[in-house]
Amino acid sequence: MKKIQMVDLGGQYQGIKDQVNSSISNILESSAFINGPEVQAFQKELEDYLEVKHVIPCANGTDALQICMMGLGLKPGDEVITADFTFAATVEVIALLQLTPVLVDVEPDTFNISIDAIEKAITPKTKAIVPVHLFGQCADMDAIMDLAKKHNLFVIEDNAQGIGAKHRFKDGTKKMSGTIGHVASTSFFPSKNLGCYGDGGAIFTNDDDLAHTIRGIVNHGMYKRYHHDVVGVNSRLDSIQAAVLRAKLPKLNSYNAKRRNAARKYSEAFKNQEHIVVPKTVNGCDGICDTCDCHVFHQYTLKITNGKRDALVQHLNNNGVPCGVYYPIPLHSQKAYVDERYIEANFAVTNQLVEEVISLPMHTELDDEQIGYITAMIIEFVNKQ
Ligand SMILES: *Cc1c(COP(=O)(O)O)cnc(C)c1O
User: Which residues form the signal peptide (predicted)?
Assistant: First the structure.
């Protein structure tokens, strides 16, 4: 059996090696390292793929989120609601801009932000909601857009884990994740579903004015060379990363289908297991089917409900099966983000998830033998007395 890896970027590289190597060597010959033709071409290709009017590439997914908030003109003291159960980058940029983060609980089955919890957290100071499409499945965007409209709030989608997923609305229509709110951010960190070979990120929006504002912000607040109209940042995608992304973008749907296929096999194997809860796909699809594009499985995350999660992690690590706990500590309990206004009872779901979740190896190169080995080992261990 091939050695099991949490992500297998080396195996994936073999399939795009010729294109990546020749594009990179062309860049080295041309010296167009920043904002070269590869970046422009990638931007256009991603706009076409997402069916969105504007893609603004930038340096990473954390910058992308920060720039979204700067572009919307959010001001210190404005409250921004986001999920307690996500990667820290989401709350970090809110705090960094001296906005007020308001963390709220998530749903126990999808791990995505709870609509009830958002509604309860809205105050006259609330200016924006940041849903995170956690582990590759969209948050409940119907309800979030309704709430935003009712309360006149911005919606910033953190799409770092969801690129390529579609959200199916109640009326049956579908839209790509990251094209539903007012603006969205994504990350091209190597292990993301569309990852480059370094750092990278992008912002998406259909709003022409906001896109214009953001194009200046990413470039030192310049709209005309050496005229700095607003305080900006320096956040660029370099040409070499754009070349890698151009090689991968045409394969993104097939990469995501491979992830879904692995997820389906995992879930089949864990069916009827008393102590193992498989991830739930919602959004128009009852099971995990091949044709459904509602979940792109950035992570495949189980809940182990009999208290053996930590022991299982140890057991897998001792037996050549990498795994991860995303995320082990609720954001509201992190030193940097504690706030006396938080009431522990309001985070009951996140507090339980951090004890139960385990993410299994998930990438485009997993084979049946590996999946069989992983699932058998987990089932045996979890049921052992
Ligand atoms: C990866 C990630 C980010 C940050 O992306 P970087 O490119 O690493 O800065 C933000 N939010 C979520 C949910 C992520 O998973």
Answer: none
